[in-house]
Structure formats: C-alpha cells, structure tokens
Hints:
The chain is an alpha/beta fold. It has helices at about 5-15, 20-40, 45-60, 105-110, 155-160, 175-185, 215-225, 270-285, 300-320, 335-350, 350-365, 370-395, 415-420, 425-430, 460-475; strands at about 40-45, 70-75, 115-120, 140, 145, 165-170, 185-190, 210-215, 255-260, 290-295, 395-400, 435-445, 450-455.
Amino acid sequence: MHYSSLETIRHDLAQGKITVVSLVQGYLDRIAEVNPTLNLFIEVFEAEALARAKAIDARLSEGKAGVLAGMVVGIKDVICMEGHLISASSRILQGFESQITATVVERLLAEDAIIIGRQNCDEFAMGSSNENSFYGPARLPADPERVTGGSSGGSAASVAAGCCLASLGSDTGGSVRQPAGFCGVYGVKPTYGRISRWGLIAYASSFDQIGPLTRSVADAALLLQVMAGPDGKDHTSSQQPVGTYFPVQEVSGEKFRIAYLEEAMTPHGLDPEVYAAANAWLEARRNEGHEVKPISFPLLPYLVPCYYLLTTAEASSNLQRFDGIRYGYRANQPKDLRDLYVRSRTEGFGEEVKKRILLGAFVLSAGFYEAYYQQAQKVRRIIRDQTTAVLEEFDFIFSPTSPSPAFKVGEKSKDPISMYLADIFTVHANLAGIPACSFPMAFTTGGLPIGGQLSGKPFEEGILLGAVQSFSNSQ
Length: 475
Ligand code: GLN
C-alpha cells in the first residue's frame, strides 16, 4: 500500500479499488507494524480517523468531497488540534490538551484531509536528529540504527515508511528539509509568513514556518495551496496574494540560472558521496542547458552562529510561559514559589532545551545584548540583503540539504557543535526568509538517501516547486 501521491489514491478510489476507510486502515496497520521499532508516532488518532474516513467515503459517493479527500496526514507534536494532547515531545507539557486547532489543520480538515496522529520530534523542535525527544529517538526506516534527522524526524520518517501519505512539520532552521533529506522524501519550507503559525508551538518566532513532507512534488504543492494565505490570527502571516502552486507549474522548457555557494561545495566540508551527488546534479543541469555558476558567499561561516544566537534568544523568551503553573508538568511538593518554578523547569525540560534557554538568556542579558543579540540582528540583515542580491541575478540557489547522510543514533549527541554546524545549508533560508525545498537527490552505495536543496525568491514557491518537479523527472 505504498501510495506515492494523492492522484493515484484518487484514481483507485474512483475505480472502487479502495475506500477511504480501507486506506486509513492500511495506514493504521502499517503504523502498528513499524512503530514499535521506529518510534515515529506518539499518539494515533485511530477511532477519529476511521470515523472521518467513513464520512468522507459518503461525501465522495455524493460528489461533494473536498480536494484533500484521501489525503492521510500526520502532524508533528508541535501543531495543535483541539481535543488532543500536545507535548512538543517534552515532559513539561505532560497531559496538556490543545485548546485550539492550528489554522493549517483547520484548512486541511475543511478540504477533507484526515489527521492520523501526532508525531515524534525533537523537544520544542530543537535538534537535528530527533534524539532530543522525551519519547526517545525516532529511527530511520532505511536503517533503524540511524537517526531520522530532526527536528521533524517522526514526520519525515512516517512518510518514508508509508505510515501516512504526508506530514506537517515545522522548520526554524531546517527541521522539515533536513529530515526529508535523511529519509528520502520532499520537504518544503515556505517563505516566512506564507503560512499561518497560529496553533504552532513557537520555538523562534521570526524563523518558524510550517511545511509539508510528501512523497511527490504535487502533494507538497497541493498542501501548500490549501494552507497558504493570510490569517487574522497570525499578524505575521503575509497579505501577498497566494500564487498557483497546484497543479505544479510546467517549466520543463525553461532555462534557469542556478547558483551554488562555492565555499560550501568543497570536498573537505562534505561527505564524499554527498559531494559526488551534488556535483552530478549540477552537471546534469548544465547538460540540460541551464546556467549553473559558483558564487562566493563570504558570510557562509556566520550563518550557523547568527542562527543559534537569534533562535536561542527568541526561544528563551517563548519558553518563559512553561513555568509549572499555567501548563503541563508541575514539580511535587514545592517548598515555595521559587522552588516550584525552578524544579518544574529543571525536571520538565530536557538538556538541550535548557542549554538553549540559558544561552538565549545570556545573549539577551544586560552587557551582552549589544555584543551578541544586536550584532547578530545586524548580521542577519546583511545575510538577507546579500541573499536577495544573489536572487536578483539567479533564479535558484542549490546546495546539498546536509553535509552528510543520516548518522548513527548516539554518534553526534555528545558533540553538539558538529551537530549545529551540519545545519549550515538549511539555516540560510530561515535567516533570509526565503522558500526552500529538499528533494530526494541520490542514494549512497549503502542505500541511504541524499537530499538536495533548492531555494528561491520570496513568495515564488510556484516556480520553485515547478523546477524541482522538472529536475526530478529528468533525473
Ligand atoms: N536543527 C536546527 C535547530 O536545532 C533546526 C531546528 C528547526 O528547524 N526547528 O535549531
């Protein structure tokens, strides 16, 4: 039952080969089969999904179903759905039930998508391996000894393992794209503000975007089409008119200008197989007649430090609300109010989250604010301006999604710096606010997926996805 697109599902539904109920049951069976090993779902909405499937079968037979009828979606455990628990894979939200439904989920439900469950992720979306989860790591379907990537690890791996057709993740510095690359699926981070963040648990609000993980470009485009657009509940959602993403734009006749960052594409900075795959990809584009050029981006070494300074600052502020009083976990028998706060947060948060709250509080503190936080804001502006300048001359920027394929569970968790540095290619798009897509580019000789990444101009997701589609077809 390994469907790769909604189109094939709709075809089989129309032919009477399957029903939405049998489809959902198939996914539920698959989850039951793989979840004990892979640890992808924290909770499965079995009864609710089956009941909705029945109703959607009825609507399909009356010809009244929405455009997402047959789309079975998993959601990362940072996206709210009223009446369901939500934890951000953290102990501190133990037992907490969503009071609201995220705008993205509302929009999907209105078009008859089915939400099948909530998925494992790094705690508060902080991480690149899904090892920072209170529920333990999610594991790579292609090799369970390895990580899925993160932070939307459960979401990407569920799609790769055939537990749902698509997932929604969140991407602050690569959390949709990097696990998409590790797992061999598509992952899109839209332009900042393209999709409402209402109902998303905030990590770093000026970076966060929700994005789809899918097995086809068409499904990513369709989900984006349904989710995109202004939302009165999120004032950072953009008023820019939504483009045409679906049907995917046909651009195979066009010749594009593609830049790649010269300093990033070096054999010593990349795993040899990633390096080879990225060069082969660029060569293929050259052979198709696209203009492929190296560009110098001297700010490259500043991307990761700038990202981590600003996101930890925003996180320390966003996570203040988890104080043991208003939400979730509360320490036992506190001596006094201070003890209640200190112990609830000490016991409730995991190590990585605590580290980032401390780092964020430090860079915001008097005396360091100007040296770190304000400097990083200025650097972000320069990164943004220089990226805009590149995208005036070029249509897209290409890079591998990550410097290496999926690593072993435990391999990097003792070396946070190397884990942070591996975010170098993905954080760029969030710092600059531009859209970016990770796509399956190649496999290693050992069978591990290698992702490629294409970023484009703000609010031009339509052409970006069209190009990714045409390049994927010609691979
Ligand atoms: N790996 C990055 C981090 O840990 C990105 C996380 C994300 O995009 N949510 O911050």
